Amino acid sequence: MQKISKKKSSKTTKKTDWYSQKFGVMAGYMPGHRKYLAAWFNGLKENMAKEKRKAKTIILHPAVQDLARLLETDGIVRMYVTEMINQVPLQHRKIVNTTELLEALNFIIQMAPAYNADPNLRNAFPMSTLFVYMMFTPAGEAAFRNAAFNAAIRKILKVWCDYLDSPASCNVLNTGQYGWLSPSAYIFNDLKVFIIPDKKAPHWGFKSYNDYFHREINLLYRPIEGYNNSKVIVSANDGTVYNIQRQVKRTDTFWIKAQPYSLTDMLDNSIYTNRFVGGDVFQAFLSGANYHRWRSPVSGTVKEAKIVNGLMFSELHSEGFDSGGGILSQGYEASVNTRALVFIESDDKAIGMICVIPIGITEISSVTIGPSIKPGKHVNKGDELGYFSYGGSTLCTVFQPGVVKEFIVQGAAGKLKKGDTIKVNGQIALVN
Fold it and tell me: Closest Cα partner for 203 from 170, 179, 176, 169?
């Protein structure tokens, strides 16, 4: 019996190591081990039960009621959602029916996520955690691509975003143990490089959780490299390099494991698509602690700026189970998720046009283009284009063919590669 016990312990260690290496966990989005996912679910259900005992009757928010009506009236959606719950392996199935799912969504959208210094217990993305196993079931794959279900979820996420834009969400902006202004959170989020409105004011002057989430950075910490050199292209965002792909095709099978970029899908059948065929895509994603505003990689004139509504919680199953809640599916998500498209004609003819594509992943998927970023607007390298509100995010920059000589940071010994850290306004490429 002792030998069997030791073997089980060894297998458990391997599983723990495998899960802990997922970037979604390493970036601090979700609990550090699957057993803590289970603990979070148990805590969620306990808190829901307390609310039910206190209120006696759960009143669903109108947006959640709309989803409830969809489940009642659309048999296909009801089938998918019921089956995605039932297809979750029993040991991981904490939400057991659609009623519990609706009540969980209703509970989550009335709260801002609290900070936790312990990465095993930190859960900044509660809705990703709610859906993480459901997303990977065969029925979940279909449900999260279903137009009606996706639209209903988008309404619910919009309500949550409105709450996180409101003063009520400031309750987690404090210096206590679970506050985002605590000494531990200050270090974790590197707040010393960000602009704090007023440390003497309540919540340090932040007006809402989202106001804190897309806080301004002190640009002394993000200087614009090569400001007077148009041959130096800078990063639109803080983040970690996910992929660099050259000679991208107009149309490709973005849904397979390799996730090749498909320009016609990424660019929403834009009139400018042909200009990028055979060009390059540079993609990097943001962790929860990154600076969540994005800036122009070049100086030039905005030709088009728009939001493309898309999917939020769909992930690519050919990648296998993604315990990071969609981190492995970013190439696929560049073609199907909610995103902005900002086309900029560079002042340097050797660069031509670029397209900056900020993409929402899970949670709020809220992408906001700055009010002045409209066709005809001239932007300088490093000028702000927009920002992400609370939620996961990734960003692609698309280049015309023959423009980029090499993807490299200033003073680097080698070329940029997957996993490298980049900073907004820092060099990412040199022009031919």
Answer: 170
Q: Using CA atoms, how far apart are residues 344 and 347, in angstroms rounded to an integer?
A: 9
272 burial (CB, 10 Å; 0-12 / 13-18 / 19+) is: middle
pTM (2 d.p.): 0.86
Angle (deg, nearest 10), helices 147-164 and 75-86: 70
Amino acid identity, position 367: V
Question: Phi-psi bin for 86: left (phi > 0), alpha (psi -120 to 50), beta?
Answer: alpha
Q: Is 111 exposed, middle or buried (0-12, 13-18, 19+ CB in 10 A)?
A: middle
338 in Cβ contact with 395 (< 8 Å): no
Q: Strands 280-286, 392-399: parallel, antiparallel or unpaired by DSSP?
A: antiparallel
Measuring CA to CA, which residue among 184, 179, 183, 212 is closest to residue 196?
212
Helix (H) or strand (E) holding 183: helix 183-188
Cα angle vertex 390, ends 308, 135, to 5°? Answer: 70
Asked whether the beta carbons of 159 and 61 are under 8 A apart, the reply is yes
- Residue 407 · residue 297 · CB < 8 Å: no
- Work out the angle between the directed axes of helices 62-73 and 147-164 (0-180°, nearest 10): 170
The size of the chain, in residues, is 432
Say which DSSP state 217 is in: B
**C-alpha to C-alpha distances, 392 to 58, 83, 107, 314, 362, nearest whole angstrom:** 29, 26, 20, 13, 6
Q: How confident is the model at residue 75 (pLDDT cuts 50, 70, 90)?
A: very high
Which own/partner pairs from 191-195 qualify as long-range (CB within 8 Å, at least 24 positions apart)? Answer: 193/217, 193/218, 193/221, 194/218, 194/291
Looking at every residue in the chain, the average pLDDT score rounds to 86
* Least trusted range by pLDDT, from 173-177, 239-243, 280-284, 414-418: 414-418
> Cα-flanking dihedrals φ and ψ of residue 97, to 5°?
-160, 175
Q: Which helix (H) or strand (E) holds 305?
A: strand 300-308
